[in-house]
Amino acid sequence: MNYLSKIQSFIEGNTVLSAAFSLVLLMFAGMIAHLICKFFIVKVVRKVFFSTHKNQVPLDKDVRLSEKLSNFIPVITVYYLLQFMPDLPEHLLIAIKTICGILFFVYLSLFFTEVLEIVNNSYSKKAKRKNHSIKGYIQVGKILVHIISAIMILAIMSNKSPVIIISSLGAVAAVLMLVFQHTLMSLVANIQVSSNDVLQLGDWIEMPDNGISGEVIDIALHTITIRNWDNTLSRIPTKNFLTETYTNWQAMFSSGARRIMRSFHLDQMSIRFLDHEMVQQMSQIRGVSEQLSALMDGRDSNAVGERWFAENGITNLTVFRKYLTAWLSQRDDIKKDMYIVVRAMKPSPEGLPVEVYCFTSSVLWVDYEDSQSAIFEYIYAIVGHFSLRMYQQPGGSDFWRLSQERAQITKTNEQQVD
């Protein structure tokens, strides 16, 4: 005991050794507190935060929160033990308190940042909310947490009230507005996009001016990420969705129908009034007789001459349009309760455009393209039975056929001269 008392007296008499001993004791206490938090606080976090749904919460959330807690709890322990060490030099005591205060708010901001991240992940995984994103709000929350932490750290370092620090920021408000102008614009855009539900996760977005067409996979504060259909990624500033034109195809998927609006071109010289030969040729196609009877208003077709067709303006194109409309109405892949229109458009140098306007019963891309292809393949094949011709510009085979015909005529004329 005399030996220990001498050592204690020696340490107490030596200011440097006393301060060093106190620092070692504080470091040892901080390490013990950290180890206790590291090994035991997981159970506390799981019981306090996730007690109602333990089985649904993965262990990594507990570990992440416990790691953040184990960082700043030792700081609190060291700061509390300083009250029992009044013999430390005043400048050293102030320095340790300042460091503890700075570390406390740094670790506290990291803790709340982790909590916000866990909230974001939990929200996005819920089935009812899988198309909504709160990532922008979470990022704003993180920015606010870091700003508050920075203000408190400045107050600790300057030994002034946080109110004075906040009031002094008014002098540099213009500079802060300039620095964070993109963040503020993105925040406003994110709030408008999210609150009005004009854009959600999983929506098909198309921006022709930027060459973008794909699915929205992430909605953040500053950018919106789109996976294009060629599996490339595009990041567009959030504010661009308020200033630029884009198309959201999600409403089409929700309606359960997808529009076909496509034209084919006819040779205008093939359009003419009906005659008996054309009627007999058309009558061989199932469904045409009903359309002809409706156009003739119940008259006996045998008593109708070519003049009657001309006087009533019934052409082969008229019968073809009526037949095509009825044929589309009978298809199972076409919506019956939506518009089904076949109309002639304004003529052009490429011929007479005839537009098919209808809606498919499936919105899936493969089914939609299959239905559209089947419809127009049938149109290209059946149009000749109505004495109509498709228009297309002359190709190499056309010029080759003309050259062969000209050569044959020249050869025939030479033989006749001989």
From TrEMBL:
It holds the Pfam family MS_channel_2nd. Its main location: membrane. Keywords: Membrane, Transmembrane, Transmembrane helix. The chain crosses the membrane at residues 20-41, 69-86, 92-116, 137-157, 163-180. It is found in: Membrane. Residues 183-250 form the Mechanosensitive ion channel MscS domain. This is Mechanosensitive ion channel MscS domain-containing protein.
